[in-house]
Amino acid sequence: MQYSCSISKLALLLLLFFVALPVNADKNWRVNGNSKATKAEACVAPVEEMRRNHMEMIQHQRDITVHQGIRKTDNSLHGCIDCHANVDEQGSHIPVNAEGQFCASCHGFVAAKLDCFSCHATVPK
Amino acid sequence: MKKMHFREWGIESPRYWGLLAILAGIMSIAGIAWYYMEHNGHWVTGMNNHVVWGTPHVFAVFLIVAASGALNVASIASVFGKKDYKPLAPLSGLLAITLLVAGLLVLVLDLGRPDRLIVAMTHYNFKSIFAWNIYLYTGFLAIVVIYLWTMMERKMNRFTKAAGTFAFVWRLALTTGTGSIFGFIVARQGYDAAIYAPMFIVMSFAFGLAIYLLVLMFAFDWDKRELGEKLFLRL
Amino acid sequence: MSDKTNLARRNFLSKLPAAAATAAIAPGAVLHSKDASSAPRSEPVTSKVRWGMLVDANKCADGCSACVEACNKENGLDIHTNPAGADVDSTKWDQQKPVWMRSVKLKDLQSGKITNLPMMCQHCEHPPCQDVCPTGASFRRADGVVLVDRHTCIGCRYCMMACPYKARSFIHENVDIKPTLAPRGKGCVESCTFCVHRLDNGQTTTACQDACAKEGHHAIIFGDLNDPESQVAKALEKYPNQQIRDDLKLNPGVHYTGI
User: pTM to 2 decimals?
Assistant: First the structure.
């Protein structure tokens, strides 16, 4: 009984692992991307801070931009997209929220739905 | 009428569940229709930039106005002291809550972005009558629940008049608020008039009472009970 | 205890001259940033500037729609297409598609004179759309531009009902191509922004104005109403002008002459 329980647990774990992998696993854009960000030294803030706070930074900045008209900022959404969008073989930018791309690689894992791109452009201008 | 007895609606089980099944069917059709609109966008409704509000708003406003009117019968009993109407009061309260929830549901689901309801609940512009209405509607629900409680819990019966009066005043404010949505619009000559608030109050008396009577007649008819003519005619 | 109070007062008094100096220099600082061109704004907007427009209906040529086309191109309205699966009936799409600027043709029944009025959001000083928005998404910026904060908009369309000029449009369909400088999404309301993405990046003209000038009509003059030296202020002084529906006392930023 105990033995079969642990095997089924293992099977479940393996299943979850394979399900969580991106479908287009032929190229891992996160590791082998060609966006400006992959070549850059650092983001506008340290990685840990970005991971925890990027949503607040973006939200705070959007209110400032919309209500006060301030566009010169490090924290603009367009700045993020400009840096983090990868370029495919034909030379055009891949939407930054497509599967396997920068945003989805984390947001898919944490299952937090993104609302930004229902309105905002997903590629740099 | 010394004491109110609450008992089940006296119809056979299959009929009851059958009625619920029919209602659930209608609701699921509505749900599918809403999903279709939400997925494809408002263009499927035929509303456009010139006809901004359409059938959903007609129904939502109708239901909300009827909700405030449905409470009238309970007010006749509790606020105006006509004790003969007391047994009719709990149904009136329940119907008021139901109609209001239905109206609000139609309204919220018609929003361009219903996923932003939390935003609507946290960002208020109190110059807008809509913002006041959010409080008026939710407050009405809470007050009518308390009012029902005072009616149905014997120990609380002594608070019925207070709760009833508060609910009556609140529902007048609510109906005025709903009328003011249209009355405050300066842009369109057909709407910009102070008459809208009292007009809506008068309409609520008519709609609410009508729906209440229809529901009452339906319930009594299925229950095979006689509805006394005296009380009925005076409504 | 008496020590604390004295220190607090002393600190306050010592900061006063610095504050006064900043207040004296600040207006100059604002003016300086206003002059800078093609630079993204880094200071908040103030009410020192009030953006406005004068439209000369006499100069607006019959049959010309350069301003409308330019607006559509600038703000990504021309690439916004009929949703898949919709009727090919174009009148329906014409009424559902977002329109920021339109040219209204008026005919005087007695004299037969035809007047063309380019109509867009009038950017009122007391906008009814701001008053009725339940979440405060529809707002008037300090420099007079009336905008919709589409992060907060819930799509109730009350502002569309409240606008006397029918200036607002609702996005009824999914948006496929989203322009970077004019984000647009299903379910929110939008209207003419006086090309705020240009203004915030240091330019001082709108797309419609540029297109009209290019066509040679010069019917649209845009600029700062508060600056007596600006082209629009001088034109307002020169030509008799009026605001549309001024009986509502909204004080729009768009003035018309020749009607």
Answer: 0.82
